[in-house]
Write a structure and sequence with these properties.
Helix content: 55-70%
Number of strands: 2
């Protein structure tokens, strides 16, 4: 089975949830709102689940969206911490890969 989740899509999803807005997420991520919306729609299509209920003025997480957020948030935080650790890591053993 091919994985359907990618970290960039999860990062965008989390930004939308935390800002309670596609526009707010697009500003925070410095990307067009249309790209944010498209990414969320593609994520929902890949999962075959509705993650966010949308109306013209409001959005609300579905049960699936809430579950994805609560599981993905700590994973992305751990990934970001690992990346920062590795950036600061200095190799002390010469001759290793």
């Amino acid at each position: 089975m091919r994985p359907v989740l990618d970290f960039n899509a999860l990062k965008i999803f989390i930004a939308v949830v935390e800002r309670d807005s596609f526009v707010g997420a697009s500003k925070a991520l410095e990307m067009p709102t249309s790209n944010v919306s498209r990414c969320i729609s593609q994520l929902e299509d890949k999962l075959n689940l509705q993650l966010i209920e949308r109306s013209t003025r409001h959005m609300k997480l579905t049960q699936a969206g809430h579950l994805l957020y609560t599981r993905a948030k700590p994973l992305l935080e751990a990934l970001e911490q690992t990346e920062l650790f590795m950036i600061g890591f200095t190799q002390t053993t010469p001759g290793t890969c």
